[in-house]
Amino acid sequence: xxxxxxxxxxxxxxxxxxxxxxxxxxxxxxxxxxxxxxxxxxxxxxxxxxxxxxxxxxxxxxxxxxxxxxxxxxxxxxxxxxxxxxxxxxxxxxxxxxxxxxxxxxxxxxxxxxxxxxxxxxxxxxxxxxxxxxxxxxxxxxxxxxxxxxxxxxxxxxxxxxxxxxxxxxxxxxxxxxxxxxxxxxxxxxxxxxxxxxxxxxxxxxxxxxxxxxxxxxxxxxxxxxxxxxxxxxxxxxxxxxxxxxxxxxxxxxxxxxxxxxxxxxxxxxxxxxxxxxxxxxxxxxxxxxxxxxxxxxxxxxxxxxxxxxxxxxxxxxxxxxxxxxxxxxxxxxxxxxxxxxxxxxxxxx
Amino acid sequence: xxxxxxxxxxxxxxxxxxxxxxxxxxxxxxxxxxxxxxxxxxxxxxxxxxxxxxxxxxxxxxxxxxxxxxxxxxxxxxxxxxxxxxxxxxxxxxxxxxxxxxxxxxxxxxxxxxxxxxxxxxxxxxxxxxxxxxxxxxxxxxxxxxxxxxxxxxxxxxxxxxxxxxxxxxxxxxxxxxxxxxxxxxxxxxxxxxxxxxxxxxxxxxxxxxxxxxxxxxxxxxxxxxxxxxxxxxxxxxxxxxxxxxxxxxxxxxxxxxxxxxxxxxxxxxxxxxxxxxxxxxxxxxxxxxxxxxxxxxxxxxxxxxxxxxxxxxxxxxxxxxxxxxxxxxxxxxxxxxxxxxxxxxxxxx
Amino acid sequence: xxxxxxxxxxxxxxxxxxxxxxxxxxxxxxxxxxxxxxxxxxxxxxxxxxxxxxxxxxxxxxxxxxxxxxxxxxxxxxxxxxxxxxxxxxxxxxxxxxxxxxxxxxxxxxxxxxxxxxxxxxxxxxxxxxxxxxxxxxxxxxxxxxxxxxxxxxxxxxxxxxxxxxxxxxxxxxxxxxxxxxxxxxxxxxxxxxxxxxxxxxxxxxxxxxxxxxxxxxxxxxxxxxxxxxxxxxxxxxxxxxxxxxxxxxxxxxxxxxxxxxxxxxxxxxxxxxxxxxxxxxxxxxxxxxxxxxxxxxxxxxxxxxxxxxxxxxxxxxxxxxxxxxxxxxxxxxxxxxxxxxxxxxxxxx
Lengths: 350, 350, 350
Prior knowledge:
The structure is a homotrimer.
Chain A: E1 9-14, E2 23-27, E3 30-36, E4 42-46, E5 60-62, E6 65-67, E7 74-75, E8 81-83, E9 101-104, E10 107-111, E11 135-144, H1 148-154, H2 161-164, E12 180-184, E13 187-197, H3 201-206, E14 213-222, E15 226-235, E16 249-261, E17 264-273, H4 279-306, H5 322-343
Antiparallel strand pairs in A: 1-10, 2-3, 3-4, 5-6, 6-7, 7-8, 9-10, 11-17, 12-13, 13-14, 14-15, 15-16, 16-17
Helix pairs in contact in A: 1-5
């Protein structure tokens, strides 16, 4: 699997990590150079001078333009070469590709597909992120040595929590509870409720539940790169399963996935919660999530390596795979559609 | 060369290294998970859950069964899945392959071939290992970065001792003495006698020879993985070459070879000697062997790399190659026989 | 690109690094063992015993011969096997290839092609290296992770100096000055003059120019491995552009290139100057060159990696590429000529 959906807004980097200096990122197997203009706007270009292929990220920022570090060819923010030292004429192909970028939710999002289809209003947004009654906390850029769809599988799969995240996000009370799934628009929703059970370690630490709770895990995954896990707990019998959440602790854990190449992805994660915490508690919660997502990383990387091993048997599929399998078929179909669209001339055709 | 003889008992691990916890080994290019049951019996299974391919060795031992660390699928010692959390039905293909294991001479031996042919009585044994008049000393699991047949070449080859092991097992007295070889049943025997010469460094350190000795090196190699070097010395003129060994120091150095894959093997070595030593002397002898086998490792790894280099010339074969060449042809023939047997239906046919 | 010109004297190692001990080098993708005889002559042989392919460089020097460390086969300086322990007969193919070697300008030069064509008088020489009025200073063996022709491009290219070497060999005064080029015999000459401009940092440090200077950069490159950069400065208006160099500081910077394989090369560099310096100043000048050539290494290695990346666009060629492009075509033609010559029987034909 080394093909990617191209017409999508992908997370490229945390906004906090982008400044008026050149930096390199890899996404969908390609290298881009990234920087912020004096005005604050973010620029992303192919990271190779079309002359000798020196990485532009090794060059110099001159005003808002990049001067190549090898022979001084200079490119503006649109990727157009505007200077070739020693010669007055600039050949028409002396340009690099520039990618549309928008910033939202603390991240710069890049459009690697047909620029004519890049609609900034389509970038993912979670309204609560901007809501003063909620509290948003930025996490890390966690690199995982696996194909991004294996991480996507994991994010269509509440069942793994009972076995992978015993010290943080899950406990054994949920082991045998089946999951449900349905497709809602472009989103694959997978969920389950665990009723009248002890709170998970995270809420035992940071909640104040006296007794058992009703808890939910709703996994929303929208291909290719948006996952949002809505989970929370309320005292048992206070009506949470019927929609009454005023007594609940609720967290939206977002995972915005950067497919680096076929072997690696980056999980840009953050969470938005319906309760305030002091700084020390916030840091402790970040620590809990870091522990949990490192557990995912460990198992996903082991699986990635095992997938390259010789096999005696064919994979077994079980009930909880319904959602990831449906998701995989949808991704294949999107890629196929993009390809036929591109072959028929793309957005510029007809 | 990436094909292996399959119908054989291969050393997998020292018994001392196997406990009631999960550990991973690679053999014949395949990963297996290894553990000891409460009863003491050793279990080996393919190390991949057939669901998502998570390594079972990253799971948890629950009684004598393995629970996968990703979704809790549980496998018994026969490799049968006995639990899938969240669903009552277990698909018939939810199983992993289990491999026959026997323990002998301090090692667990695995059968990677047709289980119907696995006869525990055929595992290699050296009677002196169990004889109270002899003394057995376990060595290491020495990983060598070469194809196991290059190590096997070395173990059909007493001549290298004069040049590789000058500080331990050989000296220059033997440089020009030809080797003899013959096939005895399935075993390739290669040997030479060095008469009336100074003792080798090992026996100068740990023997008490006043003058010159008659010494012998008998290399027994039985494909694919059993090598036993019978070597020793007796005072010159006391009749050792005619079979009188009562005055001799004699050592059986065993090399039990694990082909890890086409690029690596493990030499599980031990030795059995006809004389007792105190602990300090035993450790010093282990040190001498360790030095010697590291010398083999160094040269075998260099050859392994050089075999991948472009060549101007074809290899030269000399007199001492008769035994390794015959051995190589026999191995090729066994592999071919196994393949035709497998194609005709294996042990279950007819 | 993994083909090399073979009929040429290539630098193999600094003479200072060759002694009466065995050492290994890789050139044109091949491993050779290198040592100095008692008489001082340098010997180079293929670094693999033709028996089991053990590297001869892991063997022992016995007088001027090499004894293989595995089974004692012994080879003389012509590569002929002169001893096989344990057998009297030496098969006719028991030999390794020996390569012609000459020493000049502090380096051992090897001939990897048809030995019948190896003419020691054709090894590169710079007369000033031996001239008492000039001063020669040896530099390093700088390994660069790129194809040697990318380094050769760089050495047909004075223009990069204005952007890569701002702290040492260039300054911005030259940015927009075009380069000239012509082929002189087998040599590709590329040059430019920068008139009435501040001295470059190197000459600001080590020269005594009161005002502006006229400076020149003449890049001489003779495929496959000889580059000599003639550069210098004289006070503006003292006639340097017309040939009057008596007031000038002049340096010949030599780069003798060893193609290690398709991924690496070694730049053996030295310089010869028309002025004397004390030891501390000489060391400081070496430091300046080291800084400059490390800057080339950094950019050449980044380009080498970028050349393996997927590309959206075709390379752009600009005016300064005329010389490297012509050089590349000439190299291709030499390789093709050598191939047809070899196919028609080589120097031994007709």
